[in-house]
Amino acid sequence: MPDLLAHYLVSYLIARTIVEPRYALIIAFVGVVADVDALLGVHRWITHSVLVVLLASTPLLALTYVLGERYVKVVLLALLFYTLHLVLDLLTGSTPILYPLVGSIRVKLEVNGLYSVANEYSKLIESFKYKET
What we know:
The chain is an all-alpha fold. It has one domain. It is 62% helix and 0% strand. The protein has helices at 2-18, 21-27, 30-33, 50-67, 72-92, 114-128. The longest helix is centred in the middle third of the chain and has 21 residues, at 72-92.
């Protein structure tokens, strides 16, 4: 549940800066569409793949071309929010971002905070200090 809320809120806050708030409420739901696989009992599966984004974006962009420039902003926001969902999931756990292109390889990004970087730096400095023997 917290993941769904986080995906929606991030999408809404971005959308609100680009479109009217009432439209932002609706378009932000694209930020949670990738989690539809959880309803099937398999979270972070094919809907969390870059291939799905590419396959979905092609007909959407073609439809936008046919309908006119009026919908370009909406389609680009939708693609941004879907892709943002995948990026946020990479930060929270392993995700099959390249499925089915690369079998069952799952990718996870880890971001070390300032504390851990500072801690490692201090260990490095300690290792170079002169020690009498």
